[in-house]
Design goal:
Helix 7 runs parallel beside helix 9 and helix 11 runs antiparallel to helix 12. The protein is elongated and about 100 Å long. The protein has 17 helices and twelve strands. It has 473 residues and is of the alpha+beta class. The termini are far apart. The chain has a domain of 142 residues: Lipocalin, CATH 2.40.128. The strands form three sheets. Strands 3, 6, 7, 8, 9, 10, 11 and 12 form an eight-stranded antiparallel sheet that branches.
Length: 473
């Protein structure tokens, strides 16, 4: 009988243990499901993890999961409290789980920023994050330890240290730890931290003005992940800032081709969301506009207009129509050798008359006067000072096609002036007028030389000053 009771007691204890384990794991799974929702259901997850912890107070997993919910809530104190409670489960010396707990102490510091604008305190806060990350390696008992589908090793810790050093603008230490991460990886280029570390190095080298090094790092990322849109965009920015429009065009054309395939795929799918389609369309719009700008900067004006026109269907908008009309005029004038006359980075204007000059016809005479030929375009409602429109809202009233816009014609005037720099008087040697078809409509008086005076704050005075600057006087 006594043996029977002992056996029954043993079975009962085992059953209760199994029930507790099953209940614990179910609660942890329910917490994970709530935390993995988009957006995460943080309160439900936390409650499930707390219930699980109460069932098994010696299981460290629940303490970390509870802390994670407080990291989401930006509650540093509560996150650290739960991690510290979990650390009490471990004694002195090394332990893989102790390493994980210490690592998460670093995550609390990194992802719960301090409530201050004091840069010294901010830097100190993030240096503490790095300290916890590196300290965690002291407790690690194996080269690599996997917990909760997370592989923990020197690789990720060095990468994290590099990232946080980059956040506090410590370029030297950031580069040091990114390179240490890469050294640990060796030839393992397929590990995600290989691309991440090279991307970090690329950003730092770009910031430091080390263009060649940044190019190497960006291309290392793209060797592994050719469709990395962020790396491609940053690489394009690097080429653009360096004035390398040829290579910049190659990169942005690559983005365009890649995005076009994605857009065509979405168009052909019935389940494609409107937001996804619009997002990809926005990228296509921007890439085609960039291609237009690059060709314009390279003085390939017809090609630039072609890409502006390609951009239009992805964001039909009246402001974009105005922009294309503007670029059409600028392209035509630049192609013919006319350059804008500007003041404070804007066109010199007289109402809707915008002025250009011909550098090839700007001459300094023996008496130090200058002779210049000016041309003005009468644009009606086109604002040549309009800034580029990258993110206009779609407009149902905008035209479906812009062929007529690209072929628009405008009236123009042409003037030839002789100017003495420093004086407000000048000689208008002739004036010619042309209608939108290009037919000359000049009146006889326009062919006569006329002495004129530019009054203060007039467009004529702005033109006189600009021509003298252009002549280097």
């Amino acid at each position: 009988m006594q043996k029977f009771l002992k056996g029954l007691l043993f079975i009962t204890v085992v059953q209760f243990s199994l029930i507790a384990q099953t209940g614990y794991q179910d609660l942890m799974n329910q917490g994970d499901q709530a935390l993995n929702k988009r957006p995460p259901d943080i309160m439900t997850a936390r409650l499930k993890y707390l219930e699980a912890r109460d069932l098994e107070k010696n299981n460290p997993e629940a303490y970390i999961k509870i802390a994670i919910t407080f990291i989401y809530s930006k509650d540093e104190r509560s996150a650290n409290y739960n991690l510290d409670e979990g650390l009490k489960l471990f004694g002195e010396g090394g332990s893989n789980m102790k390493a994980i707990f210490t690592y998460y102490k670093g995550m609390v510091k990194e992802f719960v920023p301090p409530d201050t604008k004091d840069t010294v305190k901010i830097k100190k806060h993030f240096l503490e994050a790095i300290s916890f990350y590196l300290k965690s390696l002291e407790y690690l008992e194996v080269p690599s330890f996997t917990w909760n589908n997370f592989e923990f090793s020197k690789v990720n810790v060095y990468n994290d240290a590099g990232r946080v050093y980059m956040m506090i603008n410590d370029a030297d230490n950031a580069k040091k730890y990114f390179n240490m991460c890469l050294a640990e990886l060796g030839n393992n280029t397929q590990n995600s931290y290989y691309s991440i570390s090279h991307f970090g190095l690329a950003q730092i080298n770009k910031y430091l003005g080390l263009t060649d090094s940044a190019l190497i790092n960006f291309n290392k990322v793209l060797e592994i992940d050719p469709s990395n849109l962020t790396a491609l965009s940053d690489l394009y920015g690097l080429y653009f800032d360096a004035g390398d429009y040829e290579n910049g065009f190659i990169v942005v054309d690559r983005i365009d081709s890649m995005t076009t395939l994605k857009y065509n795929d979405l168009i052909g799918r019935k389940d494609a969301s409107k937001d996804s389609l619009q997002y990809v369309a926005n990228i296509l719009y921007n890439t085609k506009m960039e291609k237009g700008h690059l060709k314009f900067n390279s003085k390939l004006y017809d090609e630039s207009l072609k890409y502006y026109a390609e951009a239009y269907p992805f964001k039909k908008n009246k402001k974009l129509v105005e922009l294309i009309r503007k670029m059409s005029i600028l392209s035509d004038m630049a192609k013919k050798g006319w350059m804008p006359c500007v003041k404070d980075a804007k066109f010199v204007t007289n109402g809707n008359e915008y002025f250009f000059y011909s550098p090839s016809e700007l001459k300094i005479n023996q008496d130090s006067s200058i002779t210049a030929t000016l041309k003005s375009i009468i644009t009606a409602d086109v604002d040549l000072n309009m800034v580029n429109v990258f993110q206009p809202e779609p407009d149902a009233t905008a035209p479906d096609k812009i062929d007529k816009v690209l072929n628009s014609k405008y009236g123009s005037n042409e003037y030839n002036w002789t100017v003495v720099c420093g004086k407000s008087t000048y000689t208008q040697n002739f004036e010619k007028k042309f209608d939108p078809s290009g037919k000359e409509t000049t009146k006889p008086a326009g062919a006569k030389s006329v002495e004129k005076t530019a009054v203060n704050e007039s467009f004529e005075l702005d033109l006189l000053k600009y021509l003298c600057r252009a002549a280097g006087i």
